[in-house]
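Hi R.,

Here are the chain sequences for the assembly we discussed:
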Amino acid sequence: MSIQELGTEQEVAVEMITCVIDGFEITVPKGTLVIRAAEKLGIQIPRFCDHPLLEPAGACRQCLVDIEINGRAFPKPQASCTIPVEKGMIVKTQLTSPVADKAQKGIMELLLINHPLDCPVCDKGGECPLQNQAMSAGHSESRFEGVKRTFEKPIAISSQVLLDRERCVLCARCTRFSEQIAGDPFITLNERGALQQVGIYEDEPFDSYYSGNTVQICPVGALTGTSYRFRARPFDLVSTNSACEHCASGCSMRTDVRRGKTLRRLAGDDADVNEEWNCDKGRWAFKYEVAKNRITVPMIRDAAGQLQEASWPEALAAAATGLKNTSAGVLVGGRVTVEDAYGYSKFARVALGTNNIDFRARRHSGEELDFFAAAALTATYKDIDKADQVVLINFEPEDESPIIFLRIYKQVYKRAIKVISIAPYASRGSEKLKAKLIKSAAGNEIAAISSLSGLSSKSVVLVGERLVETEGGLSAVAKLVEQSGAKLGWVPRRAGECGAIAAGATPNLLPGNRLVTDAPARVDIATAWGTPSLPTEVGMSTDEMINSDLQALLIGGIDPMDIAPDAKIKLAKKFVVSLEIRQSDITDIAAVVLPVAAVVEKSGSFIDWQGNTRSFESAVSQSLNRSDVRILSMLADEIGRSIKLTTVKAARAEFDSIGNWDGPKIAMKSSPAKAVNAVADGEGILSSWRNLLDKGSLQDGEDNLAGTARKSVVVISGSRANKLGVKESDLVRVSNNYGAITLPCVIADIEDSSIWLPRNSLSSQLIRNLGVVSNSVVKVAKA
Amino acid sequence: MSKLTPVLSANWDEADSFTIAGYKRNGGYTALTKALAMAPDEVIQLVKDSGLRGRGGAGFPTGSKWGFIPQGDNKEHYFVVNADESEPGTCKDTPMMMANPHVLIEGVIIGSYAIRANYAFIYIRGEVTHVVRRVQQAIEDAYAAGLLGKNILGKGFDLELVLHVGAGAYICGEETALLDSLEGFRGQPRLRPPFPAIAGLYAKPTVVNNVESVASVPAIVNKGVAWFTAMGTEKSKGFTLYSLSGHVNNPGQFEAPLGITLRELLEISGGVRSGHKLKFWTPGGSSTPIFTDEHLDVPLDYESVAAAGSMLGTKALQIFDETTCVVRAVLRWTEFYKHESCGKCTPCREGTWWLVQVLKDLEAGRGSEADLDKLLDLCDNIMGRSFCALADGAASPIISSLKYFRQEYLDHLTAGECPFDPMAATLFSSAGVK
Amino acid sequence: MAFTSEQIKVMDSIITRYPRKRSAIMPLLHYVQSIDGYVTNEGIELIGKKLELATAEVTAVSTFYTQYKSKPVGQYHVGICTNTLCAVMGGDMIFDAVKEHLGIENDGVTNDGKVSVEHIECNAACDYAPVVMVNWEFYDNQTVQSVKDLVDGARNGNPPAPTRGPKTLRSWKENSAVLAGISDGLANEGVQAGEPTLLGLKKAKGGA
Ligand SMILES: Cc1cc2nc3c(=O)[nH]c(=O)nc-3n(C[C@H](O)[C@H](O)[C@H](O)COP(=O)(O)O)c2cc1C
Ligand code: SF4
Ligand code: FES
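And here is the predicted structure of the full complex:
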């Protein structure tokens, strides 16, 4: 299909079609399948292979109905999941056609002859489409007296997914999902006839970032999650709609809890965001909430340097004393909810009287602050759906925002849209997107950005947070977007970052994108907050605060190893108040530790990369832990400068009432590009990103999940391999003055001066091991 | 005297009939010259006018099929020959390709020219090595003679022809499964619509035709519509290959006008195995409901066979005499369908699994009369409920055998075993087994 | 077994036959069998790489078709038709007798690796029933004795020639190459047709 064909701007008015189902007239858009038109009337036709987001298969034959069109009847019942409605169509389902009813009962009987009927021990029991539909649409007795098909059970098709083949009804939902939605055809239907079975290639497990979705859409208990298997019955679980805290994709989720403990999480249903999917990290990484090192009571460091449990009044008093009347700042981190970020933002300005607040617990720059203030971030998932092309700049959606990946992949699969990626080499995600790679070394992206042409208002440019690592990069993007009219999306990795910007948890912005340096903007906020004045100077950034002589810092959930190797040492010299859920490098050095609630234990919201609010309620009602904002409010009271945000609800209401700044945005200052690193023989320019599954702290304790992570490797070019005299898989040592990492190498078509390592994976933790993450010259040698 | 009309088989008795020289000596490739001088649409019209119907089993008019290919759509078109021949009893395309592959190639070139295809495939089953050799050699020789490749016979028409060898899957004879297989997937049938004429191979307009259908075209081009339509019946025009096998004195291939009867063919060939009498037979392979001696005079054309309750299918006349146990025969066919079910849809995959178990019991004399009704009800739940026609084929022998031989099933139950001596049915029954 | 660069070149040429490379998967699998005798993991992995397919996708295809073997077969792979017509006319007895004669089961291979046996479905030669295929060459009108002789000959290295096929029986691997579309130059050997094929023509010409 040519790009021109895709480019038609207007959405054509959808033609509507009227037909009759079981005597009821219904009008639906052209192309609607009979099975879904029937749903609209409340008529449930039984089905297994049908899934609204997968291409029709017509394989299970459970959904047979009688159809006639303009008086001409089909000679035999038709699969309603494969036939679009037509004018003059008269459909008779099992409710009105004895033929359809018998056909369906016949299929159900056939589906059950080889099914083990082990419902009492099956995870799916109680929420199983086969069980339910067998009850509603099947015979009560089977006439089958023969021998059932059996298989060895279960087999592990990855460390996190198990397969019981005898339960499988061969609907091919899982295999179609893997191919059509995830682009990971690692599970397939093998063999044929009655021996047909789902399987993997023996040496290549189902290590897809999206494998959990197959467990969710399997209409029987054939695919189960290793971690959940045999752990619960659906009727013991209390379900709450939730939002995923792992990244900025914004997935809607469902959290299932039994007696205060999360037992599983499922992808929620949101057509505008994650459709019905999520990634395996979102689904299977939640044990951190119940980790052994969870903090539940406040603590104060005693004279001997030991943390001692304390009462809340004691701890709040101690914290207030250390923060009061001194130079102070706030480090928020990128994982807080909007309400909490708003609490931190207001706390810094009102309780501490400073703009020293920053959420960026990662590489950052002043140029980036400018970008936050100036850039119009307008791109959405819907824009991707309609895009003529998508440009990825220092952004690996499969690893860094997996639902964006699925959305782009969908268009690549359906319409073969063009994807361009600026990166040192083509990641697996890029390969699946058939992306045109503009190979660039870290630090040299500006040349690549300036080389882009042919973008239009239908194009979507997605920039990763890592572009900040190249000075001038964000300015170049701002210019590109301004000149081409393309839609721009900035995609941070963490779920809280977009919300933190909106809440003003940055040194240059107040809530609602108001510049701290802009007097009318300040007046807005001061009025809302009922304070006489607000600090007028741009505050310090995360780096600046760590390196400054500020006496005190309030820190909400950051890991200093995300910033710099020496951050912990420097922070140790200050009076640190830590709001945390678990013991960490920060609680190690904090003077006062205040426990806060994990995401499941509180309500709140995140803002996804599109700017949409993703709210959630507390899934664990019994929790005594409180959201950060509530504690900040108490602490502000103790300091004597109240922020009056006693509940999440109050914070939400106040934040909503402030709204966005409607004055003009400032223009993006153009930051100059820095000269590109030069490398000598035996050196390389370091580049990296975080794999989706890695050593991230929210994945702690999830061994089954970790088993599907990509192996840590160093990626080098063929010519470098020749020079080093190494073959694929040989060990290569990457080092600098700070330290070294030795890993097996993968030889790929990578920009020749570059070498790539995972940023934070097992045996490759760049800050810890090398002190740098990218855009830096390192030595490369055969190990 | 004889009603036989050898056309395709006319030169098979020449030792070099499969070579390009042998073919040309008998007028081979002259139809191609004629066709290339016509406009493509004229060729389609000619085939339409001849009334040629598909010989792969369904009898769909070949000219109409070609006419469905959209013209001027700026898309590649593909011409695909179905040489998968795997329907039990069917054995006409294979000997033809062994004895004269060039007539097929000539038909392919003409057909491709007519539908404006520049790429054609012959999908041949994989279990016939020597036929693969012959067709492959013929293709190479045709290229060397300028009959394939660029600018064929200097007429500006280009055609690449590739022989694609299957690997053992009856379902790949079903045209959409064939296309998936040819694209490199598992050979499972596709949803229709879209039909191959609109979105076939690589989602491009495609014609799929049986070997015999395609091979019949050169003669029609050469000898004309009137010649062709003078043979056959009103709606089943022309000649065709009837394959006679089983308990007959002389099995083999017989080219005759459509509408000839089994009685006539038996008379010509030498009759049912001496000393025995006809019990049941298939008119067109195992997927077509069986007939008995009541049907000896049914004209073997599409309409008459259908009117008598079966299908002409591939005209594979498998003859079984009174020594054959019909339950055993049906069980074995059912095992075939179970083995060949692609697995995609429930009724076929699970149904054949179940049917085999029921039939095995019945053949061994286990069960009760109620099982016969269960068997029929199962067939009702499978037939017309499946994704493709394979499962209909599986139900056909069961339903038809119960119609004509219900008592024989009951005899098994009464006896508590199969009342037949399998030895009596073998060819070497008199010779004895060493 | 690792593939030689010569063999990889052949694979590349097989791929170029097709407008889309995925179509080459079946001839490539036949080709792997012509080298390794069956579909080896090395073969699957190489095909996956060549066609840019996941190994699971190659497995999905190779396990669908019965001619692709997941373990070695004999140098002479004997397929005995036991579909209804051949079975009734003697195929069942031939099948049982040969298994007993060789001491192997269906899909089994003799210890010397020479002969394997499989019951097969209708092979489009019903007018020659009972039919036996060896390395997918036709052995027509077989009897129990003729097939015993056939497998004995095969084990001794001198199998009889196919009824309709080349003058000498080629090995499983050699014939797999033919199925991969690689010519062995033997197309002109053997008869153009057997008796039954010619019967109608003979009768039409007035023959007895
Ligand atoms: C299960 C099944 C197997 C089939 N096998 C063959 C076959 O081996 N050869 C063939 O020509 N047609 C076969 N057909 C019919 C084809 O689908 C198709 O109708 C035919 O190739 C069209 O060619 P024609 O119009 O020239 O007859 C089969 C159909 C089904 C349902
Ligand atoms: S494992 Fe589940 S989803 Fe996959 S084919 Fe079987 S029943 Fe369908
Ligand atoms: S739901 Fe329609 S065929 Fe499976």
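DSSP finds eight helices and four strands in chain C. Residues 84-102 of chain C form the longest helix (19 residues).

Let me know if anything looks off.

Best,
T.
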